[in-house]
């Protein structure tokens, strides 16, 4: 009988966990030819998440959990869950029930009967997200596809079931700055997408603020694209051409360069652009600096069921 490891990153999910466990347990019991294990990863929660996970582990032998010493981020939690998964198939799910448990049976059926290594959920619609957040998300995915040349589209998230070969290939990538959507695309493997409708959280509140989403987007671009590092050269060439053209036009038609405000504005503009691109280059240097430290991706404070 096959074993499916259901990996669930958790951060302050005390309100959502009971409903999630009940819903997914019912589905897990109804997958023919497979048995499931639950691997919950408490990402340094400040509420009763760890206490609830400890109770689930004590009452259900299928449940195991890791509790981090602090908040290391969802990417680290997903990596930790995958490292500790023993299943023939591994699936990532959010604890807020926005990933429909009923798709687990279909995902497993696809991997067993069709020639795919991964079966993933393709989110349609953004119910529960504001209009501004939806617009920014769609814009980000258009930018990252252009910059990174990887298959990362809007709606192609973390909810996916993969075979052991794909899981092991992901574990081979040990960089500290992790962007899992990019990693899924980078390792390749044949993936089938199953559409599902996005719904609101079952309980609790989203932990993703605009600030954290923006930081996540920047990390994704910098982790899988070198395009921003090449942009200063192109912009610099355009600015030089514009400066030469300005001088020529002023001498020929303006009687010389005598407009002091224009020069001051130009200097300020050039300095501002220079600082922006220096910041981009600094981001790459800082990421290389963090990688060179060889720090652990996460630190476990407590575990249960292992």
From TrEMBL:
- May I ask which residue range the UniProt record assigns to the signal sequence? none
The superkingdom of the source organism is Bacteria
Q: Residue limits of the Glycosyltransferase 2-like domain?
A: 5-169
> InterPro entries in the record, alphabetically?
Glyco_trans_2-like, Glycosyltransferase_2, Nucleotide-diphossugar_trans
Q: Which residues form a coiled coil?
A: none
Gene3D superfamilies in alphabetical order = Spore Coat Polysaccharide Biosynthesis Protein SpsA, Chain A
Species of origin reads Ruminococcus turbiniformis
Q: Which UniProt keywords apply?
A: Membrane, Transmembrane, Transmembrane helix
Q: What is this protein called?
A: Glycosyltransferase family 2 protein
Q: Which residues cross the membrane?
A: 233-253, 259-285
* Entry annotated with the keyword Transmembrane helix: yes
